[in-house]
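tool_log.txt
---
The assistant was asked to compare two proteins side by side. It first ran the structure predictor on the initial sequence, then on the second. Raw inputs and outputs are pasted verbatim so the downstream comparison step can read them without reformatting.
(1)
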Amino acid sequence: MSQRTICVECDGVYWNEARLRCVCCALPLPSSSRRRPNGQARYVCSDCASAPPPFDATLALADYRAPLDGLALGLKFRARLALGREFADRLARLADDLFDTVDRPDVLAPVPLARKRLIERGFNQAWEIARPLARALHIPGDAALIRRDIDTAPQSRLDLEARRHNVDTAFTVAKPVRGMHAAIVDDVMTSGATLEALARTLKAAGARRVTNFVVLRTPKN
C-alpha cells in the first residue's frame, strides 16, 4: 500500500504548475504584467498596483480547482491531517525564493477560528498547515497570536463587499507584534477579505510587514 499523501498523477499533472502570480495577492497573471518599480523580477496585478492591499505579499501553491480542491476539503472537513504537513512542505520549498529578497517572518500564525467552530471541528485546518510550516522555516509558530472575537457568517455565502464587512472587526492581536514581520497561513484564499482584515489588524498593532502563505488561490476574485 502506498504511503504517499498525494498520488503521483495528481502531483505531476496538477500540482507542479509553473505560473506567474501577483506578488501581493497571488492571482495568476498574463505575461505582459507590470514589474514592481524597484526593478525586481516580481509582478503585481492591476488591482494591487492601483490599490495596494494591507498585506505585503502572498505565496500560493496552486489554483483552487479539481482535483486540488478536494484535497483542501479533505483536510478541512474530513480531518485528513496528513495533508497539512504535505501542504506545509510544499509551501516551505516555495518560500525559499521569497526569502532571497525579503527577510524571514518573525512569527507565523494561522487564520484563527471562532471558539465555537473550533470546538465543533476539533482542529483548525490553518494551524495544521502553519505548525509544520513554522518548523520547516525555523520560524516561531503561534496559534494564539491572533484571536477571532466574532463568530462571523461563512464567507462562502457572501459577495465581496459583504465578506469585507463580515470580518472587518472580527480579529484582535493578542501579543506584541510592533516592528515584526508577521506571516499568516490559510488553506484557501478567495476574495482575500479575511487576510486583508488580519493584515489591517496586525499593521494597526505595529507590524511592519505581513506575508500570507496559502495553499490554493481561486483564479478570480
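(2)
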Amino acid sequence: MYPVMLQIANQSVVVVGGGSVAERKVVGLLEANAAVTVVSPAVTEALKELAAKEKIRWKEKTFSADDIDKAFLVIAATSDRHVNEAVAQAAKPYQLINIVDDPERSNFYVPSVVRRGKLTISVSTSGASPTLAKQIRDEIANIYDEEYERYVDFLTACRRYILQHVDDASIRRSLLKTIATESFRKSGNWEEQFTKLLSQYKKQP
C-alpha cells in the first residue's frame, strides 16, 4: 500500500448506490469538493435533498457501464454484490475504484478520517477491519481536538510570513520547528509568542 492524499476538487466522481453507506461516501466526497454523481433507483432522504439543492447529480436508474465512462473515481456502495461486481467489471484500468464489500477488487480504500480544518488524519487497515479503523480514529479525535483547526491556520500564516521575511535559512528552520512544538502550542497566546520569537532572532548578531 502507498498512502496518498488525493486532490479531487471538481473531479468527476460516481457513487453507485443510494443507501446509508453511499450517503456517508457522498458526504466525504463533497467535503473534498468533488463533482458527485449518484446512480441508484432510490436514495436516502439526505441524498434526495442534496440532489434537490444541486449539490450532487442523481441518476435515478439502475447501473449501466456507461455511467462511469468519464469518472475519475468510482465507489460501488450498494447492498447487492452483483451490482457491485458489475461496477468492478465496467471500471477502466486507469480509474480509481472502491468496492465497499470487496477490498480485493478495489485499487484504493477510503480511510476513517479526522478533520480539523487543514489538518487531516487518516486511519486505514487496508480493508481488513473498518470497525477497528473507526475505533482508532475516535481515539485520535479525542487527542487532536477542535483547537487544532485554529492552530494549523496559525502555523500556515506563520510559515508564509517566515518564508517571505526571514532570509537566514537556519533561522527559518529554527522558527518553524519552535512554533510546531507541543510546548509552544500549549503556551497560550500564539501570536504574542511568535512576535517575541521574531524579536529575539532579530537581535541576534
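---
observation on (2): DSSP finds eight helices and seven strands in the chain. The mean pLDDT is 93.
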